[in-house]
Design a protein that fits this description.
Chain lengths: 166, 166
């Protein structure tokens, strides 16, 4: 039996599974980053994002329901690689004054991956006429962009200066 | 002998090695994406970015020279994972009208990784007082952001409509 050619619906579904896996991976990684962070501001930023991530996973489950699919993840090699780099920083920079700067950079790499995925999914949802999904994906995209901006501000402030003063 | 604690200089150097590896990986991946792309516009976008990537690698080599280090890469697990996902798309969506939409999404994930890395390196170069490095890194960051925007425009236009019409 010949395979049906894959369509944009398939691509949307595949990418939804990819980011669902990624969000769950991020949810389990954030407490480790929170524990490792030296500055209280950075700990607080990671804690806030942990709460947001829980809500983002629920939004993804709503999007799965909209396309009448079960919420199931699919291993996302990208987030596995990105979080591996974060784990390396935690181990190699343990006890270093540059640790927080490294954690911030790792977190921003995660944010940018999510921004790219949610931007893509939002555009495809528009093309597919999934209005409700567009709103849900846009809400998360806005949060991710705000988080990235907040991390950039933190990176520019005390944390880097601390690392440099070492 | 106790190890010296790692500093922001070390973090800057480590991250430079990471993005140097990533850029070389991207340089070798772009011709495959160019070949796989169905639309002439997308092929042209990948070809343009291939030329930019060559220049970006040269800028990184200038930054290595500024900090008096040899230009050497270090395996970047993130870009390995991100490009793996792109390769999956090329294989799973081969012959599908949604292929270009998938390639665009893969390319945007790459762009966002680079945007996060160059943003981080630029901020650290400022903190470290490496003025010339700041200019070089900012030039590349501007290019990456322009590429991401151009890919977003392509994604919103004909390509997705093509995929949807299948």
């Amino acid at each position: 039996m010949a395979k049906e050619p894959k369509t944009l619906d398939d691509l949307f579904h595949d990418t939804l599974k990819d980011i669902y896996f990624a969000e769950k991976k991020i949810l389990s990684t954030l407490p480790k980053m929170m524990k490792a962070a030296q500055s209280e501001d950075l700990k607080a930023a990671f804690e806030k994002h942990h709460g947001e991530t829980t809500a983002q996973i629920e939004r993804l489950e709503q999007v799965f329901a909209i396309i009448d699919k079960k919420p199931v993840g699919k291993t996302c090699a990208a987030i596995v690689g990105i979080t591996e780099e974060g784990a390396e920083i935690m181990s190699e920079y343990k006890g270093s004054p540059a640790l927080d700067a490294g954690l911030l950079a790792a977190a921003q790499a995660v944010e940018h991956y999510e921004i790219s995925r949610y931007g893509t999914l939002r555009t495809w949802a528009e093309e597919l006429g999934l209005e409700e999904a567009v709103s849900l994906l846009q809400a998360t995209l806005d949060e991710e962009e705000a988080t990235d901006l907040a991390l950039s501000e933190l990176a520019k402030s005390a944390i880097n200066q601390q690392a440099e003063a070492a």
